[in-house]
Amino acid sequence: MDLFFHDTIDIKNPAFVFSDEESRHLSKVLRKQPGDLVAVTDGKGLEVHIQIQNISSRKTNGHLVETIVHPAPKHQTHIAIAPTKNIVRLEWFLEKATEIGIHRITPLLCQHSERKVIKSDRLTKILQAALKQSQQFHLPQLDDLISFETFVAQQKKGYIAHCNTGEKFDLADLAPTEQSNCILIGPEGDFSIDEITFAEKNNFQTISLGSQRLRTETAALVACHTLSLIHRNI
Amino acid sequence: MDLFFHDTIDIKNPAFVFSDEESRHLSKVLRKQPGDLVAVTDGKGLEVHIQIQNISSRKTNGHLVETIVHPAPKHQTHIAIAPTKNIVRLEWFLEKATEIGIHRITPLLCQHSERKVIKSDRLTKILQAALKQSQQFHLPQLDDLISFETFVAQQKKGYIAHCNTGEKFDLADLAPTEQSNCILIGPEGDFSIDEITFAEKNNFQTISLGSQRLRTETAALVACHTLSLIHRNI
Q: What ipTM was predicted for this assembly?
């Protein structure tokens, strides 16, 4: 069933109105007819099925015929990542991480960050599109850009992936079982020594994601997928 | 150390000449000086270290000071994938799979394929760039586009990932231990029922890559990374 996204859904009101853009898409692209069913999610676990009553490229409405509440995953992945110089690489990560499953993404401003601004609206649209495409119902939380030190100081514990020397355990071997796991991924120039020291003092454990030298967005995706494989077994 | 790629390296000849393009890059971008070391790989496991003797933007040469042979990985990942309608998505997969580690990629022409041609030269350049960037020494093998049935009939066994119903085991649970594992990934419209039946008759086992609905290139990368995690433990 085609899936749409609405920030808020009032399940007490059976009448449902689609936006102008959705109406165009429903009538011109999907060529829906009265009586057809489409699904809508609020990205907070709610899925409702709407039966179309009136459809045109300007206005489409229907009524709510089914409500499903999808529970939040038991284990949550939280990736804090320095946005890449080429924003397309971060956008790829957001799309793929949403498909695979991620709870929260925090863009980090690091000492070696070349990119110091992001357009949250555009990134949120990518998350919503990936959510719909992959037929999921929990939209990842996208935080505002925050400085590395402020963010790390706010966390109780976590993991930091970097390319510097020192004792490291593979994330796959550590197999963390916490309800939420936060992993820090640095910019193209990696975290600075000061940042690594600061994170370790704040209860962040240094991890390895394998012997290869991975790009920022690949490292983030590898971390996300490794956690997703660990979480499915616990 | 910066890594360059040459199709063939003659280790019996200590004199080494860089191409015009490499000479420009070495002198103008990397600002190398006589005496500096750079690494070169042939993508077949060989790494040589070259000490620069003469450098200019037109011609750079040096001599071979060290030869290292990197053994091939014990376990090999082979992904046979229907190229995506938007070729950028396949290119993204090639780059990421090279970073993570993949032995062979076979582009498949399937019944539901919307893309029926690929530019192998361009794709090979992406593989070479990703190999250099991730500091690896085994270039993935990129096959010519081949029809699904011809390819499947050539294989002894393998795995097929599809979204149709039927009994499936998670790839992560199967944890295949063969020396080389081949996984088939379908186009945007999935494999046809005929193709799935044909594969199963030819000793291909149906697998699942998780409960999410993944895009073609995401499914391929998830399969590649799952195998890489399995291979590191056996």
A: 0.94
